[in-house]
Design brief:
One of its GO terms (molecular function) is ATP binding. The protein contains 31 helices and 30 strands. By secondary structure, it is an alpha/beta fold.
């Protein structure tokens, strides 16, 4: 091989390149591909991805070897180069029929390269540790617990720090589309559509890297993902040290994945490039740069430019790309480069339990740990983050082993304190307590200063600024094994360091502040600064800082916190200060974190007050202070209750618009919001618009029917509806006093965002011709998703407020009137008399019961009012009610055919159905009233009775059922209630 080295040239080879490649040149001779395996499928346009990447492999083999005279290489590298050279000569002789005095082996089939790479990845990932920093290694396939992954419609750039997602319970919603890891490259709606680039985001520690490892291992072990020939997994931590250096694409692959050096045979490969941790990138990936440079896989290019060209599709256009990142870095990535967006949400509640049962083989121990975590909501909420599950398992395993019968940690600070203490204890005897403590202090300093800079990855120069020197640190690495990790850069150089999770860095940063400052000085300052933070980036730090002032935690860290002025009195002052802040009408996010802070200080008094009121049923919206409202929101957001569907009527004690506005944070967690008939106005529309336009909005169905929103409210709602973040699919504005102006606002919003709304209900409004035309035109538009537009039951009457918009004039059916009922006032008044009227015989007439029905059956929304006197029944009934005799089958309210309200002169009311009655208390009525309003919403299955006095309406009762036939209003009288009467009111 040495003898032929002088023949190798370093300039660009002159052999032809495939037409599908990105560099210029004529097509490669067709017989050059004669040795390719016939079973491999061809790409649509020749071999695009495979030919290009393999040609560059061959070229770079030639090119790199030409440099061996001038560039020093280790013996190990020389061996790899020699093997590489051999394949290059084979390729050259194959193309040009050149006798290089080297035997020409048979070309390898594609499976050869697959098996080579798969074998390497199995060695790398099969014995993967549960977390990279854990000592006990387990088979990745055995310890992997399923993560909840969702398909998303857009990239979300978070307006708040990701630690805020630690603060409230999370459950899958109906609006989310869960997907399996094997379906990452399947289009969510079109199965055959090509997916080139997938962006997966998720908060720190949520399991993105673990997901990548499992995906690659499944491919390596041939379980899934076999449609990909070769996978090239990179991490940005691995790529960061290459900043400023130049590589061709093949050189970069060989540099980062040495197992690929032998791949030099051209073939029709389907490639997947994985780039894990975009948020950790220190490369200059300017996807918006317009430098007019043509992409060339064979020419050395700066690493950041090379990656940009590959990710943006200018290189290897048919290769698949998978990028993972934390949410904060998603704004680095243009939407047009992304085919599919997914999000890792972590563990669902069942998966949390599954994790601990896999982690602990002792079933009794696993059950005890699960029970303990469930008892502490703050811990259970955090456990949707896999890294926190690992920390919790590590701590509880140690506590149960060393302190049998001892109390388990209940707060976040207690958990992290135990986590730190356990690792200090493990290394004290070997390295001495003084050295161990000093390293922890140095790490705390590093954590604080790097947190201020926003850094999560550090290099040796960062460590030296905190008096941590690499050689000494590696000697004492046992102290920091599980809280601080070291990673090798390329060829063992460029070492990188990081804490195992953002929360560990936040805890140590709080510890550093606690070591350096006085509690009295720092508590209020830190609380105020955290409240002033626009995105909550100090929330978790504040929880740890306050928790470290609790004496039990300080006792466990006495070697670190030698001097402290914390006392129960100081902490009580802090508790009162926090409660004062909670009462100041803070945003829900800030209030929630302050409740977590109170929990760290072991004070749950506000929450317990509300919980007691909820249990006793004595909770009243009118009596709740701002602090109590905040406590209620905290309870609801951190509860096990499913918030996917929000129905305001479920919270009947909060039946006011002011209460509704306070509950808006709950609605941000819902995919379906039901607000029908809740007396909302345009004030509520502004709040709902903010819910619709929220980046993380899950809302897919919104029912606002029967609220007097008017055009002004609809205009405010349309602002949110037209934002790109809104993905509402169904909107019900039936009976909302909407005219043509409101319809125009809706049409404008849908022109701006036409891709999601499928159904729009505008029945019982007055759109007019202009409104109808504006919306109907959109239904016909090819880009509008709107398919079901309802505009029935319109008219000018629908612009009247309240239930008056549904007012109908009833007509008595004289053929049903009992002969003891006298009709007067043009048949609008019915009076019970002892003397009979000479009505003709009719099959529909009530022959015994003093009752009658109206002429027309009702199936929509209708409202009517009556004035009554004496003792009367105000009923609705199916037409088939019995009319012969006086059995229960004939009487209103005494059978399953009718529903009735009985009214008496003493202002007493009772409701009846199927011979079951219920009295309605009249103690709250301050004046006598003889007018009742009846509202029937037949489609919704509701029948409501209202007491009307001086223009105000008081709900007496609502029947809820499913109506199966048209309902006929009816009136009835007791046998001896002669003189009683009912008069139909007009508008």
């Amino acid at each position: 091989m040495v003898a032929v080295e002088p023949w190798i040239q370093t300039e660009t080879p002159s052999f032809p390149i495939p037409e599908c490649a990105t560099w210029p040149g004529p097509a490669i001779p067709q017989d050059a591909f004669a040795a390719l395996p016939p079973s491999e499928p061809a790409c649509a346009s020749c071999t695009s991805c495979g030919s290009e990447i393999l040609m560059l492999f061959n070229y770079i083999s030639l090119h790199t070897l030409g440099k061996t005279k001038t560039k020093h290489r280790s013996p190990k590298k020389q061996n790899k180069t020699t093997g590489h050279t051999l394949h290059t000569f084979v390729f050259l002789s194959f193309i040009f029929d050149i006798d290089l005095m080297v035997p020409v082996p048979e070309p390898h089939p594609i499976t050869f390269y697959q098996q080579m790479l798969q074998s390497s990845f199995q060695d790398k990932f099969l014995g993967a540790e549960e977390e990279e920093w854990a000592k006990d290694t387990q088979n990745l396939a055995n310890i992997y617990t399923e993560l909840y992954i969702t398909a998303r419609c857009d990239i979300q750039i978070p307006a708040q720090h990701e630690v805020r997602s630690f603060e409230k319970a999370w459950k899958p919603t109906g609006a989310e589309k869960p997907i399996q890891p094997t379906d990452l490259f399947k289009h969510p709606s079109e199965e055959d559509k090509t997916i080139k680039t997938v962006l997966t985001n998720g908060i720190a520690g949520i399991g993105k890297t673990f997901l990548v490892q499992k995906f690659v291992l499944d491919w390596a072990e041939k379980r899934f993902n076999q449609d990909v020939h070769l996978i090239f997994p990179f991490t940005f931590r691995q790529l960061n040290p290459l900043k400023g250096e130049k590589f061709s694409l093949a050189e970069l692959i060989h540099e980062c994945i040495p197992e690929t050096v032998g791949i030099t045979e051209e073939s029709k490969f389907k490639l997947l490039f994985v780039f894990d941790g975009l948020d950790e990138s220190r490369l200059h990936l300017d996807f918006y740069a317009d430098d007019n440079r043509s992409a060339d896989v064979t020419k050395p290019t700066k690493t950041d430019v090379l990656l940009r060209e590959l990710i943006s599709g200018n290189l290897l256009q048919s290769a698949r790309i998978w990028i993972t990142t934390r949410p904060a870095a998603t704004n680095q990535f243009p939407r047009e480069f992304v085919s599919n967006i997914t999000e890792v949400k972590g563990f669902t509640d069942p998966c949390k339990e599954e994790y601990f049962k896999k982690r602990f083989k002792d079933e009794e121990q696993a059950n005890r740990i699960v029970s303990h975590i469930k008892a502490s909501r703050s811990l259970f909420i955090m456990c949707h983050i896999p890294v926190f599950c690992w920390i919790t398992a590590t701590v509880l395993e140690d506590v149960l082993k060393t302190r049998e019968g001892g109390e388990l940690p209940k707060t976040l600070t207690e958990m992290y304190t135990e986590f730190l203490v356990s690792h200090i204890d493990q290394t004290k005897e070997k390295y001495g307590p003084e050295k161990s403590i000093q390293y922890i202090k140095s790490l705390a300093k590093l954590a604080f200063h790097q947190l201020e800079k926003g850094n999560l990855i550090f290099y040796e120069k960062d460590l030296s600024e905190s008096n941590i020197y690499f050689n000494e640190a590696s000697v004492c690495s046992g102290v920091v094994t599980k809280i601080f990790r070291e990673e090798q850069g390329r060829k063992g150089k460029d070492k990188m360091f990081s804490f195992v999770h953002l929360s560990v860095q936040e805890f140590l940063a709080a510890l550093y502040v606690r070591i350096k400052t006085s509690s009295k000085k720092i508590h209020r300052i830190s609380i105020d600064r955290a409240l002033q933070s626009p995105n909550g980036h100090l929330d978790l730090f504040l929880r740890f800082l306050l928790g470290l002032s609790v004496q039990t935690n300080q006792g466990k860290l006495h070697n670190l916190l030698i001097k402290t002025d914390s006392s129960p009195e100081t902490n009580q002052e802090t508790i009162q200060y926090i409660k004062k802040k909670i009462s100041e009408n803070l945003s829900p996010e800030r209030s929630i974190n302050l409740f977590h802070c109170l929990n760290e200080l072991n004070d749950c008094s506000l929450v317990e007050e509300i919980q007691q009121s909820l249990r006793s049923g004595s909770l009243s919206a009118d009596k709740l202070s701002s602090a109590h409202w905040s406590a209620l929101l905290f309870i609801l957001l951190s509860s096990e209750e499913d918030l996917d569907v929000f129905d305001l009527k479920k919270y009947s004690v909060f039946a006011s618009e002011d209460a509704f506005l306070r509950l808006v944070p709950i609605m941000k967690e819902a995919s379906k919001i039901l607000l029908s008939g809740c007396d909302l106005s345009k004030r509520s529309c502004s709040a709902l618009s903010s819910v619709l336009s929220c980046q993380s909005s899950m809302l897919r169905e919104l029912d606002l029917s029967n609220n007097d929103l008017q055009d002004s409210g609809v205009r405010l709602l349309s602002v949110g509806l037209g934002t790109p973040h809104c993905r509402l699919e169904r909107l019900n504005l039936s009976g909302c006093m909407v005219s043509a102006k409101g319809c125009t606002s809706l049409a404008s919003a849908l022109r701006a965002n036409p891709y999601h709304l499928i159904e729009l209900d505008l029945t019982y409004n007055h759109p007019g011709d202009a409104g109808t035309n504006a919306l109907s035109a959109g239904v016909e538009h090819e880009h509008w998703k709107l398919k079901n537009l309802r505009l029935e039951h319109g008219g000018e009457q629908r612009l009247k407020p309240g239930l008056k918009k549904y007012f109908c004039e009833l007509t008595v059916d004289t053929n049903t009137a009992n002969r003891n009922l006298k009709l007067s006032d043009n048949n609008r008044k019915v009076t019970a008399l002892e003397l009979q009227e000479p009505y003709p015989t009719h099959a529909d007439r009530f022959d015994t019961c003093l009752q009658l029905l109206c002429e027309y059956g009702l199936t929509g929304r209708t409202y009517w009012e009556v004035d009554w006197k004496g003792v009367v029944d105000l009923a609705v009934s199916y037409r088939g009610i019995q009319k012969r005799g006086d059995s229960v089958d004939c009487k209103f309210g005494c059978n399953n055919q009718s529903w009735s309200l009985m009214c008496s002169e003493v202002d007493h009311y009772s409701v009846w159905h199927n011979n079951t009655g219920k009295d309605i208390s009249s103690s709250s009525f301050s004046s006598v009233s003889n007018r009742v309003g009846v509202y029937l919403d037949w489609p919704a299955g509701t029948l409501s009775y209202y007491r009307i006095c001086s223009g105000s309406m008081t709900l007496l009762h609502t029947f809820k059922t499913t109506f199966t036939e048209p309902l006929y209003p009816g009136f009835g009288f007791c046998t001896l209630s002669y003189g009683s009467s009912v008069s139909l009111s007009s508008q």
